[in-house]
Amino acid sequence: MRSNRMAASALMAGGILVLTTACAVGTGGADDSGAEYDAEAELTGELSVMGFGGVDEVATTRMDLAKEALGEVEVSVAEGELDLQQFLSAAATGDPPDLIYANRDQIGSLAARGAIVPLERCIEGEGIDTGMFVESAIEQVTLDGQVYGIPEFNVVQVTMANADLLEQAGLELSDVDGSDWEAVTAANEALTKSDGGKLSVIGYDSKLPEFFPLWAKANGVDLISEDGREAKLDDPGAVEALEWAVGIYDAQGGFGDVKAYRDSADFFGEGNQFATDVLGAMPMEQWYINVLGDVSPDAPMAFTTVKDRQGEPIAFSSGSAWAIPAGAANPEAACRWARVMTAVDSWEAAAQARVDLREEEGKPFTGLLTGNAEADELIRGMVTSGGEPWDTAVASTYEANEHTFALPASPADAEFESAMQDAVNSVLSGEAEPADALAEAQQTAQKALDDAWAEMEQSQEEG
Amino acid sequence: MTRRENRAALLFLSPWLIGFAVFTAWPLIYSAYLSLTDYDVINDPTFVGFDNYAELFSDPKVALALSNTLFFTVVQVPLYVIVSLALALLLARAGRASGFFRTVFFLPKMTPPVAVGILFLLLFNGQNGLFNTALGTVGIDGPSWTTDPAWVKPGLVIMSLWTVGASVLILLAALRGVPDELYESARIDGAGWWRQFLSVTLPMISPAVFFIVVVNTIAGLQTFDEAYTAFFGAGNTTYGNDAALFYVIYLFQQAFQFLNMGYAAAMAWLLFLVIMVVTAIQAVVSRRLVHYEGGTAR
Amino acid sequence: MSTLSGSLGKPGPLGQAEALVAAPVTADAQDEPAVRRKRLPSRRRQTRAGRVLTVIALTAVGVVFLYPFVWLVSASFKPRGEVFDNRLIPETFILDNYVQVWQEAPLALWLTNTLLVTVLAATTVTLSSAMVAWGFAYYRFRGRGPLFALVLGSMMLPGAVTMIPTFLIWNSLGTVNTLIPMWAHNLFGSAFYIFLLRQFMLSLPRDLFDAARVDGANPWQVFWRIGLPLSRPAIAVTLVFEVQAVWTDLMRSLIYLRDSANFTVPRGLKALLDNFGFGGEWHWEILVTASVITTIPMIVLFFVAQKHIIEGVTAGGVKG
Lengths: 463, 298, 320
Hints:
The structure holds 3 protein chains of 3 kinds. Chain B is an all-alpha fold. Chain B has helices spanning about 5-35, 50-60, 60-90, 100-105, 115-125, 130-135, 150-160, 165-175, 180-190, 195-220, 225-230, 245-255, 260-290; strands at about 35-40, 45. In chain B, helix 3 (about 60-90) runs parallel beside helix 7 (about 150-160) and helix 8 packs antiparallel against helix 10 (about 195-220). The longest helix of chain C is centred in the C-terminal third of the chain and has 36 residues, at about 285-320. Chain C is globular. Classes of the chains: A alpha/beta, B mainly alpha, C mainly alpha.
């Protein structure tokens, strides 16, 4: 009896020891120094892509071209937006995908973490011309002089308004385009309708927290310095912007009520807020123009760019980018895929596919913002007219595309964004005042930036 | 016991013995070790001593998560007990109909917690949700349960009351186990319903009540599914969800989103400590308040 | 971090831990019918009015409890724009959602995955726990008491403490992003069910087993041919409880499942919410339909196994 028990416990102890040592090892990351990039070379193997949900003709046309260029390579695309947790865990378990499709504002942190590799050799080998991309887009994926992503798509904002509601309240489009903040506040009050605590019409939606950088820049403030090292969240201009944008919600009963009302709306359907006359105006990403055109073409819309306080058009651009994870098994195929997906020819073919499709449906082609400035110009020439207000909408989109800015990349992208959002959210929920919230965010963000830059520089020295 | 018998016993026990070694004993030890390191799975663990624990005390989100969790538990458990007791009392008086209603009350408990989280988002929407519409019919202007930080936790508490079914069943069985003679003698002594409830019913069902309290407290301290579904995850990255940041949610984020496994391990041990302390306090309190038949504490 | 093993702290939705202490699910467990027979006639003078009032109150509460289900089902027959209109009967009654939901997401795959995991988990945990319970119930060896106390003690552990190293184990075996970590831990038994089954087995007559040994049966045969079949009531409870727990487990699926093709139902529902809720195109009608489809199996389970569920849940709290 005793010997049995002893045997059992010895087994246990031994097992514990083995497992402890076995599991205490990091899985390690690798770089692409072994890869040989050559635009002419024939490629083999597999390519696993994560984070690309492309199902429309714009995506599939380019994907077909990319697969052609890859020849024998077996391509598998995991559908769905990039789940950072999934990706990081996959990288951690030593089994990362060969290529990821991430938001550009995530690239900095991923790069600093060593989760993705610099694309210098890839760019050179495959012959990618980084000069053809929209400036703010390539800036967003460049960290410390190194490019970590190939930009794809540009998203800009446009002011969208319900012309009928504006008219009924005796307002002009210029009252809601942001060029005069007091006018917007007044317009908001005129347009908002609420009965007790129940909102029936949202006057103006300042789209916090997502568009906070837009309002800050409209007020002349860059929330982070161009080299990505200094946070400027507590700049008085930023505080002013936050106060104003939150005030818009407060005048409607608070952010909670507006968001709850928004949540229960039929945003993407024919019962959307503009079509049912329950939203006055808001800045919104340009792709919504197509949605509106499709589901509620008769809605009384009016469009213009978002304007900064000087009256100049302004847009806070974002978009996606292709990046190659550290430890990818087939970086050469990954690089070529990225090159072809973002090449001018591919964009042209994709645009043509969409033009054809829209023609069949009897709808106008409203253009594409590709993140590739050359392609953008080319495609602009392919735009077809859909009458008003859609033509102005498209024109506003392209105008906005020429006045974009973006937050430069930094190794603490994620922490910076999180500090910024936390600050805005705490003000929205009434827990803090803008000045205090931003001051605290400034501290958190600056510390994160300092730490991340120091860490990056240190590992560069060692590496 | 013969040698042979021993071997047989060992054989039967072997699954648990192995499982305990691999999935309980080793993880306990390793988790304690990890809590003293910085570990992000990609790189090897680096020893940092008690830094993680020190940071636990200075991390405002840990304080927030703890206070959210404690608030939720302290509010939810008494309400839970009261509601399930009330329903059980009703069922006890329902005679033959009790079987049907028992099913009705228990059915929501079978709903997957993820679906409950989704239901919360839909039914408790501040502007158009069913709950506020219903409140509106009696003239109450409901708050924005899903978006107003002050009302998120109360909303989650109310939603959790939907699944009292199991507790109702337990209390019903306990109520039915109270010997009639006790009520008889109380009635003879002139006690009214309330007096009978206080001096007969409550003491006699107190063991069941105690266990519902203990179990739901421990569950409440680890609440995760409904709140995570409704307020966290890939679709919820921009909006403020601090109000629903419960302790296990934050732990999960630290471990599997930020890959700070060492820190998360330290958080886990803190949770363990909190649960132990709370359960111990409850056990001590129970000695005074809980009446066991036959007089022997369990 | 299953809902049961190593965590008193996270009782499965059926309140497994509520049945933790004392009262065995005895071989001759009488549930309420016997009790009711004894109680009703002599209960406090219940007037007819009193009874009626009680039923009214119960009905009112019952409506509140059932209405969310009704709302959910009703919403699943509405087009997107009407999901929030809270009408009992849909203004526009459509069946499209039930067709579309299968195309919008790999729901059929998710259901299959979950079914597979559930069956594997339930059968393995029942068998292994029964084995261990048998070891504790039938065999008297030195240290039995303390060892069993250890089993009970392991239930007190919050799942979060063992969660990370457990993940690392499965990770090192290369099983992350497969369905294996969703059920394989059940090969080693689960403290809660061991407790439950042991309680039951203790109430079985020893002579039966001793006689079988004398007749020449080996230890395994005694267990497999006699002990196990006699424990059927407790086995049934174990199976049902574990089915419910595994079908609805979210945390494990969040940790271990990556590709949407491998998702189980809870993980899939969450992904649907993320993709079709705020983050996505706000297809609420798809979301409610999927919620209905994934809840129905649990409702069916309840009606099929009602007796066992109720028996298991009430077993513990009564005797305290």
